[in-house]
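so i finally got all the pieces together for this one. its two components total, 610 residues if u count the protein bits. some of the lines might not be protein, just check the labels. i wanna see the whole assembly predicted at once instead of chain by chain like last time, that was a mess tbh
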Amino acid sequence: MASKLRILVPVKRVIDYAVKPRINKAQTAVETAGVKHSMNPFDELSVEEAVRLRERKAQEVEEIVAWSAGPAKAQDVLRTAMAMGADRSVHVQTADGGGAAGDLEPLGVAKMLQKAVEEEKSNLVILGKQSIDDDANQTGQMLAGLLGWAQATQASKVEIKDDVCTVTREVDGGVETLRAKLPMVVTTDLRLNEPRYASLPNIMKAKKKPLVKKALEDYGVDVKARLKTVKVAEPPQRQGGQKVEDVDGMVAKLKELGAL
Amino acid sequence: MFSTVRNTALRQARTQLRSVRPVSLPHQSFVARLLSTLAVLEQREGKLNPGSLAAVTAAQKLGGSITGIVAGSSIKAVADEAAKVKGLDKVIFVDNGAYDKGLPENYAPLLVENIKKGGFTHVLAGHSAFGKNLLPRVAALLDVSQISDITAIESEDTFVRPIYAGNAILTVQSSDSIKIITVRGTAFPAGETEGGSAQLEEGVDPKADTPTEWVSEDLAKSDRPDLATASKVVSGGRGLKSKEEFDRLMPPLADALGAAIGASRAAVDSGFADNSLQVGQTGKNVAPQLYLCAGISGAIQHLAGMKDSKVIAAINKDADAPIFQVADVGLVGDLFEKVPELTEKLKAQS
């Protein structure tokens, strides 16, 4: 008999994708104070996929747990996840400020998630393929490695039946399809689904769903930073902006620049 | 350059030292002299993937000895090919069909065993679908952090990488004993595939089981240059309005230039173009000689993937589109008129 799905969905609070990040004067980090934050777009896809797996009913979903490590405000994204359909959530509080990830590196997060998976008895973890702040693209793979589980990254299609998970994943030049038995770690790519908007009634309901607070120490893992930020700088600016009148002008200019 | 024998002896000495004293300054400078890099090379159906040689170029910037590793069935031919790559001192090969599809569940243990055996201080792979999938798993097994998608090397432990979709450039220093790194291909051009004479060595094969089964693949067949490495790229966005228009206007322009075709996320999401053509933070990074785009507004996520291009040319009907702030050549106009006209004029010239 197929086991019930116990899905863990790690989500991250990041600077909203539409905001242009500003670097602080000391060149130590990106300015985060007073900047609009949201759930990492790839994590919205993860939550959506977990909820759709429940709605598809190919295999019973016993529970969807959203999980986040971050400052107090990370609870906002957990509420969003619950408004989208997660049953409850776990928040691991870290200090405010710090670097791109409140000084947590993917390795540290993966180690905490390993513990969380054990605690929640999860058999499927769905993560975003990367967070749009540090652009690392590591946590899911690291977690799968620590757990010794199968991994399918950059998923554009996920099907589960009788404990067998079939995933189509985006690779260079096309797609490939993998199959593995649960438990498994899946990371989401853009094409996987279109995340739903949380409706007002669901946002109200989400306020009543359980949110457990934890501290870093509760997991008893080493999350010490291995990487030290030496400097955060502006990228070199391009000298753009020159316009031409017509196609002939464009061809001539491209020739002048040696591009043709 | 050390001789192999001496190198191995010193490496052993260092390993013993390391277990006694984890970090101290004199010790670190000792490590610096013994820097040795493992470059993970990709192969596909018995052919070396030249794109993965960016790892070799980056390794040369680090200094020290460079060893390549290849694994798969009938691997000897690939190993011979890799041995000719300039800059490689040694090529480790593991002949086992279980590694053909690059599944990280067994490939990661394979790398870990060979990294431990060889005592490598740095492990580099391209930031390709293969490298992205595999290296974090390797890093976790070795209990080290990974540094993703580096664009420059400042020293043996200090690296530069873009964050926030390329809107900030982070310089980061690693305190890990082994540096696991993926390399941005457009920042480190693939090295020469001739002129080297690396020695071949059979690697250890831990023959780990994989719970994952490879089922099938569907790769876009194309005679055009590969998007990630093309010297010219033409790219279309939402302004093309439909898949039909995309297919009508972009391929002839690409052919006239001998260019690869790219697309913005908007064009991909709207179904105009295949996902594998997407240029941007969540798609491919390109840095061609010429990036010519039409109907792309220039959202930051898109700019992240192309703003290192040498020359950027843009056609857009909105004179205030952000793409014009980065374009070397901008043409304000209706792409449905301008693109065919440009295609004709380029054809007439060639």
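The longest helix of chain B spans residues 4-20.
Residues 232-349 of chain B form a domain with the Rossmann fold fold (CATH 3.40.50.1220).
anyway lmk what u think
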